[in-house]
Amino acid sequence: MKSGKSVLEKGYVLDEKYHVLLFIKSARDAETYRVKTQDGSLYFLKLFHYHKLDRSAFDDDRNLLEIELVRKVDHKNLSTYRDSGEVIIGAHKYGYLVMEFISGETLSERMARAPFTLYLDIKQVMTGVLSGLDHLHRMPEVIIHNEITPQNIMLDLSGNDLLARIIDFGHARSFFQSSKTYNKAGLDLNYMASECFNSIFSPQSDIFSAGAVMYYLLFGLPPWHREISTFDVDQDTAEDMVLKDRLRKLRFPEVTEQIIGYDTAAELILKKALHQDPDSRFQSASEFLQALKGDIEVEDVDLVQKILSDESALPRVRVKNVQGSGFDAIAGMQELKDQLRTEVIEVLENPEEYAGMVFHYLMGCFYTALQDVGKHFLPSILRRK
Questions:
Q1: Which of 56, 107, 136, 188 fits 181 for a cystine, CB–CB 3.0-4.6 Å?
Q2: What are the tens digits of pLDDT across the range 48-73?
Q3: Domain ranges across the chain
Q4: What is the CATH number of domain 1-101?
Q5: Is residue 148 a contact partner of residue 191, using CB atoms and an 8 Å limit?
Q6: Average model confidence (pLDDT) for the chain?
Q7: CB-CB contact of 103 with 180 (8 Å)
Q8: What pTM did the predictor assign?
Q9: How far is residue 261 from each of residues 252, 265, 288, 289, measured CA to CA in Å?
Q10: Cβ contacts of 223 within 8 Å, gap of 6 or more
Q11: What is the C-alpha separation between 67 and 79, in angstroms, rounded?
């Protein structure tokens, strides 16, 4: 039953239902196969090593979280649940998850074979990814995928269009679950939002990952790319290296000749999606999608940040109370002078242009004065009577 690196060998029949055709890949705690049923239907089957799974992979009832979450989703841009169960093989118990077979390739396989040359195609792929995320994030129990990477997005080639579908929910969690359930082991740091290094996951962390995938499709490498595998370092050191890299300004290589129809507006979109502050990113996958379609204008987050920084750095000006010289007695404060000139002096000098405003202002003053008179003098008048 076990051959080399895989638990199941070709031809093995699992649970008397699934005939193993092909071993696809293995991870630390699971293996994936292509299988078929007696009627010839093809499926993906994921076999879980229960004895290797982290405790965080189970819910409070000891059900496998990945299976429980995948049961709930149904969307054309997400892989589809078909079946699940448990089997005993040798001395070990395994869980299995059966998903709809997708005829196609992963984004990483596509990029290795033939990088995209049409910006329209990249937008179409990202539209599928963001539509799938939007569905997950709008569910009553919000699901955070936590591993949006080129390896976990498949291109379904069974139709005429480029249909992107998100697969592998091994690190997915409910947004309402404790951050203690988040397991970083085996994740690609290049596609992880910085807050995830502290086990904080949210819709905005998925948005960061989607932005990193879009950057990869455009420029061939993830943003602030760091080849962690070449360094013999522990997890904390690797994370520190990545965080340090992200202090640098995001670079955008020239690709207008390689990618037909490339729009530099993509750079504003990516800067926002990949911002280190989750509050400065798109606040939903739907908003990201609107920006990609050109339905909303995207501000330059670098410019906005600079304006905010400049305003917070403005010095406090101490104004002396000097009589007789008017504005000339005040050093600097040009903005305040301009504001006073516009809002006060011009009104007084040109009453006919601001008659309505002055009238409402005077009526407001009169009403306030009348209230004060009533409050202070009416009681005494009543007492005299």
A1: 56
A2: 999 999 888 998 889 999 999 999 99
A3: 1-101, 103-314, 326-384
A4: 3.30.200.20
A5: yes
A6: 84
A7: no
A8: 0.77
A9: 16, 11, 20, 18
A10: 190, 211, 212, 215, 250, 270, 274
A11: 12
